[in-house]
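Q: What structure does this chain adopt?
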Amino acid sequence: ARIMLKAMTDKAFELGFKELVFTTKPEVMSIGYSLYKRLGYEELSEENGIVSMRIDLSREYPYTFESDYVKAEGIFMTHKEKAMKIFYEKFNCSQAVLGAYAEDYGLTADQAMKVAACFSGGVRKGEVCGAVSGAIMVIGLKYGDGPDYKATAYPKAAEFMDRFKEKNASYVCRAILGCDISTEEGMLYARENGLFQDICPRMVESAVDILEEMGIWLNEQ
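A:
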């Protein structure tokens, strides 16, 4: 959806169009509808569930996408780029992974940062890696809807955990870092040896890579 929308809007701008108008059905295309709104499309009218959308191409284009925590040239950053940008803005690993996908599923950046705030460092106890927790939240956003969600969401979560362990030997924070940051000694060791700067970014990248490999970013269920 992102690639198609970018190509369509770029072509219209290149051809000299002053505006671009089309229709969509939010009930069916909720994620796409949210993307249109974030790109700057405005809603003109609605009839029988079909909405007319319009974007003004007479102003400067391409536009700059800005959220509360992520600022980048254009909306078309990869999820990995977005995750790493969030992480290097001093947010934690779980916030980085969830934040990279949040707006695809209707969460604002602010909501994502709050929801994932306490999951880093294995929920502060050296347990499940925060990047893994953030990824499981993303899986829940995609598959956790409806009365039969367990049949799809649970196997997807288990698959993610298995893939992550295969790539990184463990999904437990203390095993990944080689120390238990729930203790003063472990936290001191992690800080003095730069583990948060060395290992944690790689776990964020790995979590996003696995989500992409699993097709979590795709709209279809």
